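INFO worker-7 received task bundle
INFO bundle size: 2
INFO processing item 0
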Amino acid sequence: MNRTYNRMKIFTTWPGMKQELEECIRQCENCQRNKITQNRTKLPMKITTTPEIVWEKCALDIVGPLNQTIDGHICFDVSGRTF
């Protein structure tokens, strides 16, 4: 909202402009669909110990459902390494 307001006030201004812009943007479907959110969803890195023996630590990622080809095949490529 602030970027739009700052851009607009370069060219024009009127009393209550900021409130009108806020209301307009709040009601604008395209504005709400395309806005950039500032939510930080990344968690801080967790420090872990190095495994001493094989399979002491194991990671599992679950994915799906996966699309099939016309022949009914599913292609899935896995590459990973746990440190």
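INFO item 0 finished
INFO processing item 1
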Amino acid sequence: MPMPEAAASCYTETTDLPTMFCTYEDSALDAADENGNLSYADACKLFAEHGERFDGIYEDNRGISWVALDERNAEALLAWLGY
């Protein structure tokens, strides 16, 4: 089975089992679907873990594309959170 590209750096050459995610970002990106988007529940959890409300993105998009935020794109949400 091919290794997910986002998690490739977290695998060792001696095994194809993940040791653990290298960063918080990697774990959030791994939760995304094939289009790079999080479910509504995962997006809410991501924001709650940072003391934010997911609905807060509509008050201030912080320069992030509204389309990407509406799609719950994992990279856009992480950027909104300051990653």
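INFO item 1 finished
INFO post-check item 1: The chain has a mean pLDDT of 82.
INFO post-check item 1: The two ends are 30 Å apart (CA to CA).
INFO worker-7 idle
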